[in-house]
Design a protein that fits this description.
CATH architecture of one domain: Alpha Horseshoe
Largest sheet: 2 strands, antiparallel
Radius of gyration: 32 Å
Number of helices: 19
Distance between the termini: 121 Å
CATH class of one domain: Mainly Alpha
Strand order of the largest sheet: 1-2
Number of strands: 2
Helix content: over 70%
Length: about 350
């Protein structure tokens, strides 16, 4: 009996030792594996996010090329081995020469250097679009977006191309994608204007309303209220725009440094690059609202407050206002007589011969 007892006890102890050995082995193996992993991780080079490169790419993404060049140049000056910064400088400088005769040759050189760069493909699309070769431009836009689906400016420019072709649904889709990638004022204002053209006034005003601190959206909203004959609301938005335009802090923001573009005739676009042009446009809009209310004196006073412009700037301003007023009269025939009277009083001389001589 004692032999059996001793034998059983020996077996139990042996099993305990075996189990303990297995447990210790597992612990050592796990600990060793963890230490090996930590060692391997320590040997790998750390991935450091270069904030300057991120900021430069963000500026490129929304078409602020001068800002992108500045950011990349500072980084490259401090670290001449940074290839991303060097490439960013090349890309930003190239795009700013879009209208130069050497642009295509320089672009081709960069394409040979890296045909899989999203910006190079995008610029190819822009070049062909600017030369009315939309069938050639679109594949380059598509290629750019395949390489970088978040390239907001490519979505925006593709939307402009689709709008020229009358593809309004496709235009809307691309603008929404641009806004999803970068919800900046330029893209929202363009979407609001697209809704405006479609006479979807409520959604247009809602979209413009998202652009707080952007005077152009306020002026566009005012023109919708002209059509709806809510002239007091139009005046309110125009005064809001003027308050923004005359606020140095607001107008120093990057989005308010960008030009305003207007299509005054099919495929005829003018731009207001200077602050005085934008302020003049707002004062003339205010003048129109007063005149439509029957207040010719305050209409005249608003025009007198408009800043002085060069002859070419003044001509472009009057050309744009005439287009705005013609669109108003077409949309609301009740204003036809007042529109014609305003044009005669405040927008002369502006005749076909002068239009041809200026443009």
């Amino acid at each position: 009996m004692s032999f059996i007892y001793r034998t059983g006890r020996w077996l139990v102890n042996e099993n305990i030792r075996r189990i303990s050995f297995i447990v210790i082995f597992i612990i050592v193996a796990v600990a060793g594996g963890r230490l090996t992993h930590l060692y391997d991780v320590s040997k790998k080079p750390k991935v450091v996010v270069n904030q300057s490169i991120v900021e430069g790419d963000n500026a490129l993404n929304i078409g602020r090329y001068a800002e992108a060049e500045r950011i990349f140049s500072v980084e490259f000056k401090g670290n001449s081995k940074n290839k991303e910064a060097e490439w960013g400088v090349k890309i930003a400088q190239l795009r700013q020469s879009l209208l130069m005769p050497t642009f295509k040759a320089d672009l081709d050189a960069l394409y040979q250097e890296d045909p899989n760069d999203a910006y190079v493909n995008f610029f190819m699309g822009e070049y062909y679009a600017a030369n009315q070769q939309s069938d050639t431009a679109i594949p380059y836009y598509d290629r750019a977006l395949a390489l970088n689906s978040k390239l907001a400016e490519a979505h925006f420019k593709l939307a402009e191309l689709y709008e020229q072709q009358g593809l309004l649904e496709a235009t809307t889709v691309e603008l929404l994608k641009a806004i999803d990638s970068a919800p900046i004022t330029k893209y929202r204002n363009k979407l609001g204007t697209l809704y405006f053209k479609q006479k979807r006034y409520e959604v247009a005003i809602k979209e413009y309303g998202k652009n707080q601190g952007y005077p152009l959206s306020a002026l566009e909203s005012a023109m919708i209220y002209w059509r709806l004959e809510y002239l007091s609301q139009a005046l309110s938005y125009q005064k809001q725009a003027l308050n923004l335009l005359e606020n140095e802090v607001v107008m120093s923001k990057p989005e308010n440094q960008e030009p305003w573009y207007f299509e005054v005739q099919p495929k005829k676009v003018i731009s207001f690059n200077e602050l005085n042009q934008k302020i003049a446009y707002a004062y003339y809009g205010l003048s129109v609202s007063f005149y439509l209310q029957g207040d010719a004196v305050r209409a005249e006073n608003a025009v007198q407050k408009s800043p002085e412009l060069s002859p070419t700037q003044q001509f472009d301003l009057k050309l744009l206002l005439a287009a705005d007023l013609d669109a108003l009269a077409k949309a609301n025939a009740g204003f036809l007589d007042q529109v014609e009277a305003y044009k005669l009083r405040f927008l002369q001389p502006l005749n076909n011969e002068e239009v041809e001589s200026k443009h």
